[in-house]
Amino acid sequence: MRTLFTAEMSELAGDLVAMSRHVESAISRASEALLTQNVELAQAVIADDAKLDDLEETVDERCVLLIAQQQPVGLDLRTIISALRISQSLERMGDLAQHIAEAARRAYPGSAIPSEHTEIIEEMTVAAKKAAAEVSELLETRDLNTAAGIVSDDDDLDKLHARAYKTLLDESYTGSTQETLDISLLARYFERFGDHAVAVSRRIVYLVTGDHTGDRSRA
Questions:
Q1: Helix axes 74-107 and 39-70, enclosed angle (nearest 10)
Q2: How far apart are CA 175 and CA 114, in angstroms?
Q3: CB proximity list for 16: less than 8 A, separation 6 or greater
Q4: Is 212 exposed, middle or buried (0-12, 13-18, 19+ CB in 10 A)?
Q5: How far apart are CA 106 and CA 67, in angstroms?
């Protein structure tokens, strides 16, 4: 019976990695679509979000069955509950990538990024893609240095988010209402993407160290 439980837990871990790899691909392609006005790529990201939803449903069903059939306790139970929360964060990250792709599609054939915000958004795409890759690595390795890297990436996204809003309030800013709305939403999407990556990081740190705050990741 324990052998079966161990196999099921391994499959659960694999499902989470599959979700994170999907998110990694989604944010990378959504970012490219946004920066290059590639409407076909944007549409592909939007369509593929359903696959991530299916993966989340698979994880949720597996967790419920494990709890009902195996009645886990201690670390096993915490791992299953954490998996439920991690899958939720990953699904939200996928939704945010979808929103970014939708912004690119909506602005086509133009760009959703005002020229004065191009550098900021480019930097946000780099930080978001790095965070997504580190989430995948963290789920595979549970390495606390990787967890610390995710927090650092989120700090970068927070700073860029603040910069984006500051430029909107600058007296020299002359963007249209639509451009202002676009950059406000895009900056928020990337910032929230980082927040959900941190949520995954903190959950793994808790499993490894028992620290509820997630502050014991290595620098």
A1: 160
A2: 7
A3: 59, 83, 86, 87, 90, 139
A4: exposed
A5: 43
**Tokens at 43, concatenated:** 């549409």
What's the pLDDT tens digit per position in 108-167?
Answer: 999 999 888 999 999 999 999 999 999 999 999 999 999 999 999 999 999 999 999 999
Predicted TM-score of the model (pTM): 0.92
Count Cβ atoms within 10 A of the Cβ of residue 135 and give its class: 0-12 exposed, 13-18 middle, 19 or more buried: buried
Q: How far apart are CA 138 and CA 177, in angstroms?
A: 40
> How far apart are the C-alpha atoms of 11 and 62, rounded to whole Å?
9
Six-digit token string for 97? 């990538």
Question: What are the tokens at 82?
Answer: 């954490």
> How far apart are the C-alpha atoms of 90 and 13, rounded to whole Å?
13
Structure tokens at 106: 């909506």
Question: Closest Cα partner for 149 from 200, 98, 190, 100?
Answer: 200
Amino acid, single-letter form, for residue 3:
T
Residue 109 preceded by cis peptide, ω within 30 = yes
Report the distance separating Cα 107 and Cα 117, nearest Å: 15
Separation of alpha carbons 141 and 50, rounded Å? 27
| Half-sphere exposure (Cβ direction) of 93: Cα atoms closer than 13 Å | 33
Nearest to 211 by CA among 84, 88, 78, 90: 78
Task: Report all structural domains of the chain as residue ranges with CATH numbers, in order of start.
Answer: 2-209 (1.20.58.220)
Single-letter amino acid, residue 25: S
Task: Supply 140's token pair.
Answer: 């595979």
